[in-house]
Amino acid sequence: MSQPGLIDGLQFARGAETLTGTLDLSRLPRLAVMRCETSGLSYELRGRTDAEGRCWLQVRAKGTLSLECQRCLGPVAFPLALRSELLLARCEREIETADDDIDRVLAGNAMDVCQLVEDEVLLALPMAPRHEQCDGMRDGAETGGTSPFAQLAKLKRI
Predict the structure, then answer these.
(1) How far apart are the C-alpha atoms of 107 and 88, rounded to whole Å?
(2) Of 30, 48, 111, 122, which residue is most buried, by most CB within 10 angstroms?
(3) How are beta strands 41-49 and 55-68 bridged, if at all?
(4) Bridge-partner residues for 67, per DSSP?
(5) DSSP letter, residue 101
(6) 85 pLDDT tier (thresholds 50, 70, 90)
(7) How far is CA 120 from CA 40, 134, 137, in A?
């Protein structure tokens, strides 16, 4: 198992290199700020070139994240199993002028593996994580046993 660090993206892809490992929350600061929790995410980063000579990175990550439910603010488990294919672009202009649906990332000689994996994990997260059914919302615990709509209906009758 290799330690994450910095890679030269184009060289990594041309050499069809592979990195694998596990990242804990200390290596994923943006997830930590979002109050995500995890015991660790396993990742695999693979480089490759295609028949046209273009360089690609394949990012895989797997694990379970504990996110904050947007209904009840309690923890909700989110099983993560992502696989992304990223075309390495030589310049920003190449990314900006692309007219296809291929995901691109700017190639560099010092690409941070942790940041690359974290970027893809962030993109895979739901916009508003929530339980299928929240106990607090279903029981009306936040409103004293009745739903807010029932309370509004009572006011409407007055």
Answers:
(1) 5
(2) 111
(3) antiparallel
(4) 76
(5) S
(6) very high
(7) 15, 28, 32
66: Cα separation from own chain's centroid: 12
Rounded to 5 degrees, φ, ψ at 149 are -70, -35
d(CA 46, CA 19): 7
Instruction: Please state the pTM of the whole predicted model.
Output: 0.77
* 64 vs 36: CA distance, rounded Å: 10
Name the burial class of residue 62, with classes exposed (0-12), middle (13-18) and buried (19+) by CB atoms within 10 angstroms of its CB: middle
C-alpha 35/C-alpha 101 separation (Å) is: 31
Q: What does DSSP say about strands 104-106 and 75-89: parallel, antiparallel, or unpaired?
A: parallel
Q: To which residue do tokens 């993560």 refer? A: 80
First to last CA, the chain: 69
